[in-house]
Amino acid sequence: MQSLQAKASEWSGVNQDDAFAIDDANLFQKLGLRTFISLSTNFYTRVYDDEEEWFRSIFARSKKEDAIQNQYEFFVQRMGGPPLYSQRKGHPALIARHRPFPVTHRAAERWLHHMQQALESTPDIDADSKLRMLNFFRHTAFFLVAGDELKCQNQPPSCKHGSSNQLPSKTS
Amino acid sequence: MQSLQAKASEWSGVNQDDAFAIDDANLFQKLGLRTFISLSTNFYTRVYDDEEEWFRSIFARSKKEDAIQNQYEFFVQRMGGPPLYSQRKGHPALIARHRPFPVTHRAAERWLHHMQQALESTPDIDADSKLRMLNFFRHTAFFLVAGDELKCQNQPPSCKHGSSNQLPSKTS
């Protein structure tokens, strides 16, 4: 069986080394807390206003402020800052905590679309940091798609079929 | 629904602050790589020789050397050292990666029994570090028990029944 990380690399097109190049620079020290708060605020403002209802609805059961806080606390912790996320919520356990959401290939791409726009519109993020983060986010998004498929293990065949978690159709 | 971390605290008896007091001291700087390698080697030597077959068999499909490396690389990364685990395998995703194993209350207690012994028999671990690690391990073990129960969501009732993932019987 292909590992989660192998699937993430294949589907994202980002290899492991590039994905975790965030660890070769301390992005928290470079960018500071405010920038991370701005980034997540910009991101979720786009997400909660998304004109694509199928994507927006994924987040409908969470409060926007909570989504923002969960995200920037995780980013800060993972990118060299204080462990804000674990102090409040424990282990990130990324796949398990995304279990309630349908993390399909299509949803990953839409998430990344908004994150790319958020990175562009957040002041004071230099090009090098932006590239490291984009690679990390892209790999992680598809790591979560790989994790989403675990939900269908030991389930009837209808699970996978019904999850719409297939590679996007080539006929567009 | 009670969160993963709330279940972990309740079942382990270790609150969130004590569990993540590993972050108030850099244990990697204090103890060094060799101590972490020794700890995991001591731990898995006990586990793979466990006289209790039900527990030993949980690990039967993994090579001992791989188990040791996965564990100490994660510990090093999580306790203030270089991100060895992520460089090689990506996100820890603790719950998802424990999915193949039956992480029951009983298995958590057996794991902790061996880890306590391993901590005692590994030289150069001071009392303060030992306490921080034990609290972290105890909370984390029951976080994974809570995660294990997610596997039974949307499954027929026989899943939970069959998983034996119940609180230990009081009649001993």
Can you walk through the features of this model?
2 copies of one chain form a homodimer. The first copy, chain A, has 172 residues and is an all-alpha fold. The first copy, chain A, has a single domain (4-154), classed as Globin-like. In chain A, 64% of the residues lie in helices and 0% in strands. The first copy, chain A, has 11 helices and no strands. Chain A has helices at 4-12, 16-19, 27-31, 33-48, 53-56, 64-78, 84-89, 94-97, 105-121, 127-150, 158-163. In chain A, helix 1 (4-12) crosses helix 10 (127-150), helix 4 (33-48) crosses helix 6 and helix 4 (33-48) packs across helix 9 (105-121). The longest helix of chain A is centred in the C-terminal third of the chain and has 24 residues, at 127-150. Chain A is globular. Chain A starts with a helix and ends in a 9-residue tail after the last helix. Residues 161-172 of chain A have low confidence and may be disordered. Chains A and B meet through helix 1, helix 2, helix 7, helix 8 and helix 10 of A and helix 1, helix 2, helix 6, helix 7 and helix 9 of B.
